[in-house]
## 1
Amino acid sequence: MRKFLITACAILFSYTLFFIYVHSKMVEERDVLLQNENRILETSYKAVTQMFTISIENYFRYAIMQPSVLQILHAVNDTNDTREKAILRGSLYRLLYPFYNEELKKLGIKQFHFHTPQGESFLRFYSPSENGDNLMNIRPSIQKANIEKQFVAGFEGGRVYPGLRYVFPIIDNKEHLGSVEVSIAYENIEFELAKLLTWSDHILLFKKSIITDLVFDSHKHHFTPSVLSDDFVIENQKISNVTAHSIESEHTKKINAILKKRYNIEAKFQEGKNFSIPLVENNQGHVANFHAIYDLSNTLTAYAVTYSHLNDLVTIEHKYITSLLFGFLTFVLLGIVLYLLVEQSQKTLREKIQFETIIEKTINGVILLNTKGEITFINASATAILGYSLEEVLGKDAHTLIHVHQHNTTKEDCPILNSMCYQRAYIGEEIFRKKNGEHFIAHLNVAPFVRDHHNIGSVVIFRDITQDKEAQKMIEHLAYYDSLTELPNRKLLLDRLNYAVANAKRSQEFCGILFIDLDNFKVLNDTKGHEYGDILLKQVAKRLTSVLRLCDTVSRFGGDEFVVLVTKLGEDEKEAKEKIAQIGYKLLLSIAEPFHLINFDYTCTASIGGTLFKDDDKTINDILRDADMAMYEVKKEHKNEIKIV
Amino acid sequence: MWRCTCLFIALFISFSLHARPLVFAPLPFFNSNQILEDFFPMVNYLEEALDENIAFHYEKKYDDIIAAFKANKIDIAYFGPLPFLTLQKSFPYALPIITFHESDGEQGYRCALVKFAGDTLSPKATLKVALTQPLSTCGYTKTKVLVNDYLHTNLDTMLYRYVGTHDEVALSIIRGDFQMGGMKESIAKEYASLGLEVIQTTSLIPGFSLVVNTQTLSLEQIEKIKSILLAAPKEVYQTWGKDIRYGMSETDMEMFRHLKSEIETFNVPQSGSF
């Protein structure tokens, strides 16, 4: 559970990072799209203003700055008579009306306005009866044109319409005659924008302050509050219907409702920068672009706004949702893999600990070899057996360092290395050398490491079996030799007798058996105790062994009975009989010598019965029985004698 | 049975008429924006006070407004006295309820003969006279009187043409398209700053009025409209259009009597002489 939780947390954390990354990428891509959309609006707005600028500059040069106009303006400057001024105003209207009506109006320009050098309205062609009001303090453009005598262009509020102002100072023969303004009403801007932005709805949002503060009361009804912000107004479509289509469009209303409900658009307006808001609703993409318009005093005056469909937003959203979904699936899969890896890793670690524990705690030496036969790992038992420290063996050639080759075995013949070469396990005994030069017999189990049919090393598990070998020898000795006399026991005698029977048949030489029984041994045991009897038996065994040839075998057959197997007695039976008899007498003589038993000398005799065998059909039981019967006949008659049958 | 049918028809007409918003017709105009700008505040005020939507009905000529009024497509209209009398002659359901005051506070106004101060009048035969509309009080009817008084000449012997509105009469004279013209005196004064001068005026004639259609509006509605407008505070109506911003009073039908008899003596030509 803990592992699962850790894995889940790790995946969740990773997916969160992935999500943040993907989301940032989506926002980045969407922002590029929105920037393009906003740039289109900005460029369109600039194109419109630029178009008007070029046309209006030409009009100023060729239509306004003509002698007849300048003459009237000079006359206006030169008189203080109200009636004369009125006639001059009318005359100017009469003179320029054709230009206003046929040129400017056709371009969609209504506002054509002359000002006095003092900044008073002199003649409004679009509202001729309204004049005489001072604009110097409320219209920075007029102030600048008449005081600094500079051409001024830019967006500005006004008494009648907010719009783009182009104000030219009129100077003739160094005399300042006032200024003339050709203004593009916001309606014209919207009209021209409509021609460029045919695919979108668009409106102009005006700062309420520039409308309420400047516009004549009678014109205030041109504007109506915007649904987006209390600080902004839009054209009243009941009065002027240039943007009625956009304002009343269901698309615009829908986007405005969403903007008002979901976005803090007031904060965006406060920033006063261009911005675009993407919207995805009912699987349809929309964008509302806002282009900030600043007036000549660098105050935010209006926003040009477009509402358009932008289905690329849906495409982007779908793309990243798909990425997030695939990412999620990938992370889930990764999580499963990670969980399994953690599980496997813990299992491996557990196995490693178990393996290391086994390796370290086992009494067997364990050595890992690489393909070159160099030691890459050695456990504590191995270093203890070999007497080397870890540093002294790691990286060393094992064959040279510890393997003793009785017959100068080369590496090619080394069974340990061959095990690796032939990819077969090897179990056997080899002689290893300790650091101090001492040799020992090692029982070893060599297993090659094979991966994809290639050797990658091997493991040598060994133990010192010197003591085992000695124990084995001891066991074998106890099995075939009498523990008291160190003579071959009955079992070994029977083995050798069997061998001798078979050999006698092949060699055609006689062999014989002498069955020896000590006389009165029971009396010694009974009177002096078994300790004395045992000493006697030991000493008898030594004397018998010393008398016999190397090729003969003397064994203790049981109690005080000894059996001697005599071989190589020749092919002639008579000679063989004599030879065995001679041996029997030698044995009697040797037994007849006194024995020193602890604290006294003891003299004893023995009864010996013997028999010969060669290629006849006698079994070993027949042979033993014959010798035994001969010995009993001696024992029965007079003891201390020999009888060969 | 016949009574039931009549009642059904009356109810049907009543429901049909009230299924639409109230309809207001301002002055006939050529420049929609200016006229709308003038009347929008008053209509807006009325809408809020009545809690009813009021739609604008635009026409360029009085004839068309009269036709629409008679067809019950208009509930309230802004009429000069002559168009009203013309309408009432053939449609007795037209009732003036409110008369707008002039800038000097008078309940009536004067028509004026105007010229551009910078012009010297040419011989009578070549003088061009600008008129508003055939059904405009200051149009043919009063200009004929004014020309006769000032030049002792019959207007019918001169060159005259209808230009549509009072403002257009003033501006066309300033532009030099005409040498004289007949228009409302108060409007003429607004153009004094452009050199337009009044050379002759008429006696006082009834002011412009709001005329209601008693066939489409109930008595109760009419009374409500009247009382709302008469109770409008000065600071409110001062922001209205230039022709309706100087206050109102209930229409005095007596003022129409003289004009009514006067128009019966003239046969107003429907088009200009050149």
## 2
Amino acid sequence: MKQNRLWAWLIVALSAIYFFIPLLATFIFSLRMRRGELSFDAYASVFSDPRFFASFGYSLAIGAFTIILGILVVVPAVYYVRLRMPWLRPFMEFVTLLPLVIPALVLVYGYIRLYNSSSLIPFTGSVLGTDILLVCACMTLALPYMYRAVDTGMRTIDIATLTEAAQILGASQWTIISRIVFPNILVAVLSGAFLTLAIVIGEFTIASLLNRPAFGPYLVNIGTNRAYEPSALAIISLLVTWGAMGMIQLLTRFAPKTARKD
Amino acid sequence: MLNKTHRLLSLTTAAVVASTSVAFAEPSAELIEAAKAEGQLTVIALPHTWCGYGEVIAGFKEKYPEITINELNPDAGSADELEAVRANKDNKGPQAPDVLDVGLAFGPQAKEEGLLQPYKVSTWDEIPAEAKDAEGYWYGDYYGVLAFGINKDVVTGANPASWADLLKPDYANQVALAGDPRTANNAILSVYAAGLSTGADAAGAADAGLEFFKKLNDAGNFVPVDAEAAPIAQGTTPIAVNWDYNLLSQRDGMNGNPPLEIVVPSDGVVAGVYIQAISAYAPHPNAAKLWMEYLYSDEGQLGWLAGYCHPIRFNAMSDAGKIPQELLAKLPDAANYAKAIFPSIEEQNAAKQTITTKWDTVVGSDVQ
Amino acid sequence: MSSNSASAADASAGPEVSGPASQLRRRFRLGFEWLSVVPFVVFALMFLAAPTLSLVAQAFTDPAGNFTFDNFRGLGSDQIVRAYTISIQVSAASALFGALIGLLIALALIRGRMPQGVRATVMTFSGVASNFAGVPLAFAFIATLGRLGLVTILLREVFGFDLYRTGFTLFSFWGLTLTYLYFQIPLMVVIITPAVDGLKREWSEAAQTLGASKWDFWRYVGLPILWPSFLGTLSLLFANAFGAIATAWALTGSNLNIVTVLLYNQIRGDALQNPGLGAALAIGMVVITSIANIIYLVVAKRAERWMK
């Protein structure tokens, strides 16, 4: 047993070193803006740049809309497929696997070709249209994770019984979904939401090819033109992502733990 | 041939040459109204540190606050700009650029493809004939010479003084171009300049340049990373080949951390002219024309000068005494410009054709 | 219980109420159900199926607009073949090492009986690190292994070893693989931990009482059970690395000759000067990642048997 734990600790320690050192190096590099001494100048420079707040705010907004769209598209579909149309399930699984197969780069290439202003649905013909396209594209990226989160959530709470009980008590379909099912899967949905947020904030490919002022292109732009600010931004980015992931971990502790029936 | 307005202006400015206020030819009132009605101008590939564009754009915004400036993709190369016009031919949205700032060789190509619309600014006559299209489809805006920017924290020994020096083993893993030679004008001309330095004539310089970079790559001296400010400072590309104005503004930006020295190569000094043009499919053509008027006014031209670029009207303006002394003092050494070669359009075109198509096969920066 | 039988009938019809009102409600409910799935289907069509098909169409079109196989033949050009080769190699290497190391970590966490605190921290961090891919990761590795990076300087000052004199750069095969591992390993940890969790302790205890050694247990029970998940996740990691562009772009700009950078250049600046070829390049990418994921699908189906 002792030997077991020894090699376990060794592996974890070695990996910790591999993962920690780049973060430490980034942090130290970000402190070196002033020659010869350590200072937070790079961070001050980042926080005094209006484009930082503009692009971060823009990405947050896109993230929020992506999450809302995701909930609206995924939750009803998963609910009804589980409940009434289980034959549709393989189709849904296949669809949610597609974003992992088709790289984001290829997808956005397709969008630019298909939805430019000379086509039937001119998304890129206006700022609002391009923003909508960006939200939909981000949703496509987040789809596998959102689906898995909602699906797991529904699996845990046995929606069949809940629905039936509610129907017997005379609830309408809409009431069932919004006031019974949704609150119970809220934790799962929020996990999916935070993951979506992390994805959207870091997204570069789609935003840059659609020329939207998101956080990803901003990071790359700073990365080419400034020497120390990129490291500061990397640390900030890390803290934000950690915050989002930490929230997920926190939330899963509050997940309803009904016994599985299937 | 100076027209009456300019003669009048030059008389008044001659008396105030040291002051910072400059008079300029006013664009017509109809143009201003039409531009304001359009309300927006979409520009592309204008980094704020390139030729002082940050200040130039700010100046335009201050003059015409009703016109918002939509800045696309500051890191785009000349080919990226043309592609953006092509891709947005029918698009009147914010993706479509109104105005372009591309390398000289890209002008005739764009005109041939029908991507441009002609416009002659009010100071048209002061632009040298070699640097503009006679019909007004494109027109030179500024120029500089290619130089090496050297990060002294990494290159602690002697600086390379010439293209030939770059091949020395001291500079292993250190030399980089400031762009992709398949799409960026400055990278293409860097290859051309390297070719000229080996003694080739104008016709053979492109191939000679490719050979030079092949040798550089094989010797392990070439780094396949765009040598922008960050990679230079981080030591990834300690020797950057770029326009002198870019290197000078990067040096200012780094503020000694790390110290950057700029060296113009002794063999093969190439000057490159960039050109302005209005997209044929511009969603805001009047705003575009107003922008051009602004850029070619004294105010615009001096804005570029403050960014270490030589504006295209430099000779005419200095003859008229419109250039403040302190700006002149900050410029790079005039001796460099005396022996600079200004490749003609045909030479640049041929070079561009060769270099963009053959770079991958001849040099091909692969992952090792 | 009557509720159970009722729920069985529920699966296709509705609660047992008779009369014309129930029929109306049934039809309405059917309509409502379909309505709820429609957004999903429309979304899938508009944003997954249609763009891909449009690219397939363009891949078969030449600049004049006629049907042609030329674009796919153009994929055989030296530069493109090299790009695909390098992409496949880096993806395979980072996937293989990522999977192995990730598995080791998951095993260490669970079989090594790490305290709950350590496990939670590792899982959270894995979630963070697998999303760290892209621009911040590139910056981090430049700050670590770049010319003036912390580790580079450390190696030089403390150990007298000049990393860069050996010709190492971050944009070499090993440099890229090392960088990609930073998000591949955590992804593996996140996905394989539930599978390792499923290796019930009772099984290894039972094996022990039957006289099997630790090695026997792993060889006959543990690894065969984990093998489908492992192989499946390996495919996933491969596709993940193959489609990655942000990291490479932030590291080197446009100069690296890998497929994603090539495609990005083509979209942005028509670097290949042939849109049909760009579309063919994109479709080629999809074919390769599809093969990897078909393996994942087939193998994951088999893995499910063990998880019941």
